[in-house]
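Inputs:
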Amino acid sequence: MSDSPTALQKIKERAMLTTKDALKNKDNCTIPAKAETETALAYTEEVARETEALYERVAKVITRAEWPSFAPYIYEINKLKKEKNAVILAHNYMTPEIFHCISDFAGDSLQLAQQAAKTDAQVIIQAGVHFMAETSKILSPEKTVLIPDMEAGCSLAASITAADVELLREKYPGVPIVTYVNTSAEVKAASDICCTSSNALAVVESFDSDEILMIPDQYLARNIAKQTKKKIHTYAGSCEVHERFTPDSIRQFRKAWPDAVILAHPECPPEVVELCDFAGSTKAMSDYVTDKQPSRVVMITECSMSDNVAVNNPGVEFVRPCNMCPHMKRITLPKILDCLKNMSGEVTVDPAVAARAKLSVERMLAVTA
Ligand code: SF4
């Protein structure tokens, strides 16, 4: 990347984009085409009146011109989910009209699954990716778990299978296997314990063993390896969103906004994380902004995160370096409405697999209790 004033200006312009801008900008991301069959619902006076308070909530990140394309779906979904005794779980990487306007619970994946398990709702709609829906099913086997798009996957979850875990167990006999929650139920079931990006270090330190195998995210594993004396064996998985950030891009952000606090997700390469001011999970980054109220912040993570945190922090200016997760962006309001109407997209987990996967999750929860 060049350091010329023009290049810096371009960096600034791109980084100030909202998620909506990024969705329209093919240079910034690859987004699945919108289903041609979607029929727009009418923006009636009743819809406008009933959704106005929700619009006020997201007015900082959604324009008046955009609202009529969202509001009818929001209105229908909020009505229907009550009739169907359903709750909607929205991950931090959902777009703001989903995250702030239709969700019952919003946050990171494990937190969402835990909250949903405590409700009386019979149906869980997972506004997130497939492994998250599986985690919800593992913690709520008696509930119906639906995902609005079955193709909403994850590069990390897709990088490893249960058979791979068994081969790794043979390669590293006796070495505990710590598995990131961004994996399939089968992989969790084949592991010794799970971890999240916020408790990974505590989970690693909970073992007596001097060696740990951390799967599948090589970058999370390398970031943890820098904080422990244990030998960490890694696996070649990665998040396609976070691995695209480079040290050079962080230096450019620092140069363009010297007053900004730069926060990174630990799925980023260690060479990126070490140039940032703070590294933490999506919840940790959100809490950092809420607690410390920096005047300007750069979040090195998925685009929608900044939009969603900005809604609750009007005094903070967000620079938006924009790496979009194409899997998360498969989830849209029309698909959520279809899913609710037709009770389609059910996610099931073999009960025996679910029981073993739940053990791995519970062992993690016991470490951090
Ligand atoms: S952001 Fe990365 S880890 Fe999260 S769903 Fe997308 S590819 Fe997977």
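Residues 305 and 316 are 14 Å apart (CA to CA). Flag for discussion at group meeting.
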